[in-house]
Structure formats: structure tokens, C-alpha cells
Design goal:
The chain is mostly helical. The protein has one domain. The protein has a two-stranded antiparallel ribbon with strand order 1-4. Strands 2-3 form a two-stranded parallel sheet. Helix 1 crosses helix 2, helix 1 packs across helix 3 and helix 5 packs across helix 9. It is globular.
């Protein structure tokens, strides 16, 4: 039985999955979210291509334009009947279990994509690869990983990669982060800061801060909050691989703040 060109030990398998998770967090939270959706920063073209390629390889049918459009509508209609994925409307367990199906339903709405995908132009790579063959990237990566890691480890790594964005973004962030946590800002919707130390989700844990100031590249607002994504952005900006377009500091935030409180 063919075992692949690279024999992964249990530690190697864990590190491969961890590396995949980190890359997906950067590609979704920093590129798709803060850069493409909210224009808070601009990445160097080489980094953009790296993020775009990774998204194509590790998701099934996700394109930048549809992702951005659905997310922008979420902000515009947050926690109302028109929100594509609100736990207030659909229920928390529906978001956790079927969040990706709600995303795909919204992404098929041509009028939604046209209205909220403004400014997201599709270039040659989109027209000939990322959009045209959006369902083939993950299948191609499956073949590569089966060849490199063997059938068992290759399939395990691939399934893990394919689950990251649908479960954590479509489910956990869009669900739990609107139900559990504390609020720095009295926004009109239910967004909450899940945890003040934003490491696991690249800073997306500071969800209420983001909803209050969506155009800010920096999500932490209190001295005791930490946004790992902002740290990465600062390093990339220092290396001239990213340009920071907008940052909102705590004293500049325009919405009234409320005392943090826990919610069940």
C-alpha cells in the first residue's frame, strides 16, 4: 500500500494541521475580512495571490466576491430578518450546524452579490481559475495531499482543512460570538467580544469591537485586550507587505461604550 512521500508522525500530523489552521485564519480574518470586506488594509499583490490560492485549495466553492458580499450584508442587516446568518433569527444551533448552508444560500443570490460585492472585481485569475473552477481546488488539493502524505494522513489533513472555514467562521464566529461574551459598545445588534485575548481566531474574538468599528484594522480597544491579527498586520506593514488604511483607537471610537458584562 502506498504510504505517501512524507511519513507524518503524530507530532508531524498535529503540526501540519496547526499550520493549516493558522494559514486559513490569516486568509479569512486578515485577507477576506479586514482587507477585502472592510478595506482596513491592503496587502502586497504576492500575499494576495498566496491567500487567494490557499482559499481556493482549502474551501469548496468559496470565492472572494461572494464571501465579501454575504459578510457585508451581515453587517448591514445584522440580527434582523435579512441577516444571512443571525443566531437571533435562525437559532444558535442552526448557525453552528448549518451555518455554511446559510452562507451558500445567500451566495447564490445574484442580487445580493451585485449589491454588496461592490468594488470586488474579478481579474484574470478569478475568471480562469478561482471562480471558474471554484469547486475543483479542494479536489485537486485532496489528490496532492493523498500523494504526499498517503491515503490515511492525507485524507485526515484534507478533511480538517476543509472544515476550518465552514465550522469556525460560518458556525462558531457567526453564532457563539453573537450570544456569549462581553460588550464594550452598545451596538444595535447582539455582537459580543467572546474573549479579550484574540489568538485562536486571529483577533475575531473581539467581535463587538469590530461591529462597532468595522473599518478598523485593529480590533482591540482596551489595554487588556489583545488582537493577534493586528500584531501580524504590524509586522507585515514593517516588511512593506501590507499597508494599513484605517485604525480606530479606543478614544476615537464614535459609538457609546457600555460596561462590559457577561452573557449566557
Amino acid at each position: 500500500m502506498f504510504e505517501g512521500f512524507i511519513q507524518l508522525s503524530p507530532t508531524g500530523l498535529a503540526l501540519t494541521m496547526a499550520g493549516s489552521y493558522i494559514m486559513t485564519v490569516f486568509a479569512s480574518e486578515l485577507y477576506l475580512h479586514r482587507s477585502r470586506s472592510h478595506r482596513a488594509l491592503t496587502f502586497h499583490p504576492l500575499l494576495c495571490q498566496m491567500f487567494r490560492m490557499w482559499i481556493w485549495l482549502t474551501t469548496y466553492g468559496v470565492t472572494a466576491r461572494t464571501w465579501v458580499a454575504v459578510h457585508r450584508k451581515h453587517h448591514a442587516k445584522c440580527d434582523t430578518e435579512e441577516d444571512p446568518h443571525s443566531p437571533r433569527i435562525h437559532g444558535l444551533w442552526t448557525i453552528l450546524g448549518k451555518g455554511t448552508l446559510l452562507y451558500r444560500k445567500a451566495a447564490r443570490d445574484a442580487d445580493l452579490v451585485k449589491a454588496y460585492g461592490v468594488g470586488i472585481k474579478e481579474d484574470w485569475m478569478d475568471q480562469h481559475l478561482y471562480t471558474k473552477h471554484r469547486f475543483r481546488g479542494a479536489l485537486f488539493f485532496l489528490a496532492v495531499e493523498l500523494l504526499v502524505f498517503g491515503p490515511i494522513h492525507g485524507l485526515m489533513v484534507w478533511l480538517f482543512q476543509l472544515s476550518i472555514l465552514p465550522f469556525w467562521a460560518s458556525g462558531f464566529i457567526n453564532g457563539i460570538f453573537h450570544v456569549v461574551g462581553y460588550r464594550n459598545f452598545d451596538t444595535r445588534e447582539d455582537s459580543r467580544n467572546f474573549f479579550p485575548i484574540g489568538i485562536i481566531f486571529g483577533g475575531a474574538e473581539l467581535h463587538n469591537n469590530h461591529h462597532a468599528n468595522p473599518a478598523s484594522a485593529k480590533l482591540s480597544m482596551k489595554w487588556w485586550e489583545f488582537d493577534a491579527g493586528w500584531l501580524v498586520i504590524r509586522v507585515l506593514a514593517f516588511l512593506r507587505l501590507a499597508k494599513i488604511n484605517h485604525v480606530v483607537r479606543a478614544h476615537e471610537a464614535g459609538r457609546p461604550r457600555v460596561r462590559p458584562h457577561a452573557a449566557g
